[in-house]
Amino acid sequence: MDKFSFKDVLVTFAGLLITSFIAWVLITATGNNPSEVALYLYEGGFKGTRNIANSLYQATPLILTAVATLISFRVGMFNIGINGSMYVGALYAGWAGYKFTTLGHFTHVTVCILIGMLVGAAWMLLPALLRVYAGVSEIISTIILNFVAVLFVSYMANGPFRADPIAPATPRILETAELKQIFPNSQFNTGFFIAVFVAILAHFILNKTTFGYELRSGGDGLVGMYPSRFSSYLGIPSDRSAIIGMLISGALGGLAGAIEVLGAVRYFFQELEFNQGFDGILIGILGKLEPIGSIIASLFYGAIKNGGFYVDYKTDVSREIIIVLISILIFFVSAQKIVKGLEKYPFIKKMDNFFSRKKM
Amino acid sequence: MSKDTAIHLKNITKEYPGVVANKNVDFQVNKGEIHALVGENGAGKSTLMKILYGIEQPDEGEILINGEVKVINKVETAINLGIGMVHQEFTLVPSFTAPENIGLGQEPKNSQGLIDWKGLNKLVVDIAEKYGFKVDPGLKMIDASVGVQQRTEILKTLYRNANILILDEPTAVLTPQETDELFTVIRTLVDEGKTVIFITHKLREVMEIADRVTVMRAGEVQGVSETKNTSIAELASQMVGREVFLQVKKDEAKPEEEILNVEDLWVHDARGLLAVKGVSLNIRKGEIVGIAGVEGNGQSELVEALTGLRKTSQGTINYLGENIASSTPKNIRRKKIAHIPEDRTNTGLNTQLSIWENLIGNSYFRKPLSTNGIFNLKKIAQHSNKLKDDFDIRAPNISLKVKSLSGGNQQKVVVARELSEDPILTIASQPTRGVDIGNIEAIHEQLVQMRDEGGAVLLVSAELDEVMAVADRVAVMYEGQIVKWVNPKEVDQAQMGLYMAGVKD
Fold first, then answer.
1. Residue of B nearest to A204 (CA)
2. Is residue A229 part of a domain?
3. ipTM, 2 decimals?
4. Do residue B377 and residue B432 come from a single domain?
5. Which residue, among B262, B299, B261, has the nearest Cα to B477 in the 3D structure?
6. Number of domains composing chain B
7. Parallel, antiparallel, or unpaired: how do β-strands B322-323 and B314-319 relate?
8. Of A209, B16, B182, B397, which sits 20 to 30 A from A89 (CA to CA)?
């Protein structure tokens, strides 16, 4: 994979600068005070225990969906159905959360999480098999399955799993199934540590094990290039890698959903809305398809997201504008070619050479 | 020949992270000459031409076209200055005909503002006739031979009024006959007042076609000479910086017991047509068996069948007494059969991965490189650095992506990996394609060394010289069959040419 370079730092700062300017224009145009908005954005993202905890809470599912994205990309598959896995994972983790009544706390949480992951993985089995054995583009099948997931969970919450006669929702999960919330007035929960642990584990597996090597031997940057001639030539079954990669990707989507229900919402209801599966694609790419990069990008994104909520709460600037600004920022940060012109300056080149030097 | 300078690249320096691709390069081409630019892979030829064609910008230096300083910062500028380039990899739309490809982007319009197809066809045929080559305006490129595609590329530049043509390794993909035809075309172009820059590693072709030659090595110009005043040996030593043996030095083979015995093998190609029709051959320990033939006569399918990448339809492949027909690549590899594939970039390598990740493709699972599925990165680095040194892979470090290496160095990564695990049988398919002379020599030596150390080698190559020089016994393939077995010492090139064209005795 491309490693981070000095250029990336430059691009990020250039992106921040340009976005700040556009933000200033937009906010002024809507009759607000830009410096006030900037202040609240900062405070909402970073100031005080509660805001920081909320920023980390926002980052939690993003870390998982970003890693889910990058794993599928790095086996050469283009999985954009992680949001669907997240929905079904959340639904079934919630179901397990009230269904198993006799388990101890640790066991119950573990069972709920494993069920969420299992269902999330199962959700990706069909597109993976269709791709490998029938040549159906996983892009198409996973997009379709996203819609199916929304309708499916809504049916389940309305029908078989419905508990409340008024609202279409499942029963609340038992206390034994809860991921603990650590700070008062914040939905931040221990799921965050699970997410970070999973990302670090993914980093280890991808880069330091034969299993990870086999998975990515056919892909790694060649997104959507499955099946790779290289891995089958080496005797590594690329079909197996593609299927396993998709299942892991789906399992992590399911885990993101499970953590949302077990740690924050505590039950599944029809109106529960996820979009972190899509944000994860952006963040995974921003993080250069590296798990550690994804953690950093998720923390940043989570902070801005939470800052956006705070701005919405404190000022007349609507959250939509903040979302527009986040999108613009990502747009510029991913615009690598902006700094290509800078390469001709010796200083930039020297810095870049320096930072891209590695030991091995 | 006029002595006016068409192109003068003056003191060009271009640096990439970690590599200086061009160092104070001075390159001068006279009007109306055929100027060969030779050098090993990674010597900086391509970078220099990219700078001339506006794809890359030099860090230092200037470009003079017809004596005037020009800044060429995009390809359009180069085209407007009358420079045309035919890349090694063609840039044609396969489903378009020759005129459609040639006119693309600059179609003549009729009075209604629509594309004037008739006018375009006529224009293309006229240009083609002027330079003495035929074009079939109705033939789609997907159905055209490589030679026809290449001529279409040349026509494309002429259609855009190119006066200076850059041909990047134009003969790499051609059969000997097509090469002759190309040379006729090049001579006609020069007679009509064009200037041709001819990039190649094949020194014999330089001597045959070029007026002058510039040799590059490691980013610097080593010498400029008129071909009539130089020799292949002199150019070769300039290229690699030392004396080169153009013949492969090897002793008589001492074959021992049989390693591989293929009997009556039939294989279908990707389209389901029969590609290999009843091939039988055997390879013994301590010998190199060569397969010669014009490409596309079933050699690729034969190799794929032997290496498990393609199912066989009929017949047996006995390897050390066991039938491995239609086995998997994994099983075949575990039996110590190495495979240098003809397609380097998609099959032999994952160019997105680093050098070390490509080098351990056949050994990552064994101790000490990994234990219980976990890499020992230190041992891997030792192993990879050793291969890098042993096989002279030129790269600043082994963490670099393979895609940033030159073609020859990429091939050395493949060869290093495949020969590293003590194979019993080595199947090498076009092992020196797109590789420069110094590295060709090295790869040939390595194959001979494999043989001398008791390995069996199957060498499949479209380069007749290569098969004849390296192999101990040669089979000629034609239309899926072996038409002739020859002893390379007892047969001449002309005779081989006839066998390759399917003429039996």
1. B374
2. yes
3. 0.84
4. no
5. B299
6. 3
7. antiparallel
8. A209
